[in-house]
Amino acid sequence: MSKKHLVFVVNPKSGVERQKVVEHAIEQYLDKEQFSYEIQHTQYAKHGTELAREAAKAGAYGVVAVGGDGSANDIAAGLLGTDTVLAIFPKGSGNGMARTMEIPLKDREAIETINRNKVVKMDVGFVNGQMFISNAGVGFDALIAKKFAKSARRGLMVYSWLVTKYLWLYNEWDWRIIVDGKEIKTRAFLINIANGRQFGYNFQIAPDADWQDGLLDVIVIKKFPKILGSSLVIRAMNGTLTKSPFVEHYRGKEITIVHPDLKLMQTDGDAHPCTNRLEFKIQAAAQKVIVP
Ligand SMILES: Nc1ncnc2c1ncn2[C@@H]1O[C@H](COP(=O)(O)OP(=O)(O)OP(=O)(O)O)[C@@H](O)[C@H]1O
């Protein structure tokens, strides 16, 4: 029987680990009876999309995103519409989607998950035509994603420091949100549209989101007294954020977010410019993925 070919696409900029460790883990734990493999490295942001597209075109069985949510997004964007399977070797900082899917963070178990090769289909989200696998957002989370991208260092400490610093400076906006035709007007700290459950580090922004239900979860954190910021963080960490009186939760297939001054958003943790009207959609069961 011919072996299934896997292309590992390593993002050398994600996470904090040395690349040799990552390559050694692949070599040591991958089932070479079942899989042939090669390791490629991205050279610039979004390069993973091109590499994944080429791998699918060349007939690869699977492409493994070696990195965090941003890397998994890049790979999935290249695979969408093909039969090639996505896998994630969680090597990012927060690893939000890997944690949502309960993909082990330890090297050996992560590679053994790939070896077991259990394939299911996942939903993917789109905002103004741009894909996201975990979540997309406007407001405070987009601001932090932008500041995090500018930071030379990665990891939870940098993230926490940025949140603490900008929390007190942040001014909430009055937003218009439309969920499957129903209009909501709200003054919000952030609005997150989620397919997966968390930003990473176990910070569960959408604890009830299901990446296989064909729906997007809309999490609105309303204006709250800043002194209560840490209680919202505790709720996010223990999976009870939507029970807070400052949080509204909706679910739908088509969501629109509008603000006349909107210019910045984040998709899967990457900040980028946007128009002042965002149209979100979900494509159910769009991508094959390896899960535990
Ligand atoms: N060679 C590269 N140089 C610069 N940027 C890259 C390169 N390869 C990938 N990227 C970009 O790096 C960004 C961040 O990657 P990723 O999300 O995997 O890591 P992370 O931010 O450390 O992890 P997490 O999202 O789990 O917190 C992605 O948007 C990706 O496009």
TrEMBL record:
Descriptive protein name: Diacylglycerol kinase family lipid kinase
Domain DAGKc: 1-131
GO cellular component entries: plasma membrane
SUPFAM superfamilies the UniProt entry points to: NAD kinase/diacylglycerol kinase-like
Taxonomic source organism: Taibaiella soli
Stored PROSITE patterns: DAGK
Molecular functions (GO terms): ATP binding; kinase activity
InterPro entries reported in the protein's UniProt record: ATP-NAD_kinase_N, Diacylglycerol_kinase_cat_dom, Lipid_Phosphate_FormReg, NAD/diacylglycerol_kinase_sf, YegS/DAGK_C
Entry keyword set: ATP-binding, Kinase, Nucleotide-binding, Transferase
Short name of one Pfam family: YegS_C
PANTHER family reported in the protein's UniProt record: LIPID KINASE YEGS (PTHR12358:SF106), SPHINGOSINE KINASE (PTHR12358)
